[in-house]
User: What shape does this take?
Amino acid sequence: MTDLARQADRPKIFAYYFPDYHADARNAAWFGEGWDEWHLVRAAVPRFPEHLQPKVPLLGYQDEADPAVAQSSIELADRFGIDGFIFDYYWYDDGPYLQRALDEGFLGAPNPERVEFSLMWANHDLLDIFPRRDLTTMPRTLKRGAIGRAAFERMARHVVDCYFWRPQYTRVHGRPRFSIYEVGALIRGLGGVREAADALNWFDGLARESGHPGVHFDAVVWGFAVLPAEIPIAAPEKLIRELGFRSASSYVWIHHADSAQHPFPFADTWREVAATAFLEYDGYRKRLGVPFHPNATAGWDASARVAAEAEFSRDDLPYTPVWQATPADFEHGLRLAKSFISASGYDYRELTINAWNEWTEGSYLLPDEVDGFARLEAVLRVFGPRANRGSP
Assistant: This one.
């Protein structure tokens, strides 16, 4: 294969980044001074024989708002073939949440230009599952993900002013990439499909006024809700067309697998979940009308978000099924994704990975004390170094 062919075949590879491993003012008010999700990681316990908990990070319980920590993550990503991060981005009716990892850590590091970054607006309801203690009732809602037009415009202005202009911000055909996690919440908050389309068009115009050729809006699509308040989209192709999305993507495989249909608590193999996800991905590719980019998910075990004293039961689906994926299982998923992408024929190719650091959901690339760097090594083995396609 020629160098040109290798470059054309290698997708952009982005890892989702969950920024809840630093001190945050809202978390302090809700859970106590200095709280972060490392508290849940440390407190996790095995729930059944052979359950691999707690997860222990090989590099330690790092403060991701520290630029030196971000520097290390950037170096690791670049070294193992990750083109950049997609930060889970939180903005509610009264403003931002969990932004220090990006603003102080990543952007404050001495080397952020070595990888790309973009944002996925994580506009789901924020529920108190930190941890979940009572499985008989819905967790309390800390913040509503559906926001009105005024708050939406404040967010858009902040994103354009603070992030889009940066040279390492990911662009697709020149347009800054901005992903929306829950299309249903977007519509609900803005008052309807027509109103949501108008708001996205306004956002696009704002970017154009700032010198960009518009915004590349990406819709996260999926079939089964994960958080109890999430809104599955029954006909995503219709909404994608009406709202003007330019691509669609997936956040995590379990969005495409009905947890209630799998064994409990030690679910069947991760490769079966992969097969289910890619079957649904194939359907999206055929019918959405825009490029659909797949995901590779490192595993799933969110038992750390169920209090140790709570009964571990089906009542907390889908958080209680556990898929203990091995690095080999993850590599199998990467190879499925590679074949899927090669067959797509798109002029822009992208793979998302869940995730860089979702420790409390058991889905991470960062090294742990059991598997070391094996998941990162799998990415490099399957796709080769970034030089095979070129740096940003």
In short: The chain has twelve helices and 15 strands. The two ends are 23 Å apart (CA to CA).
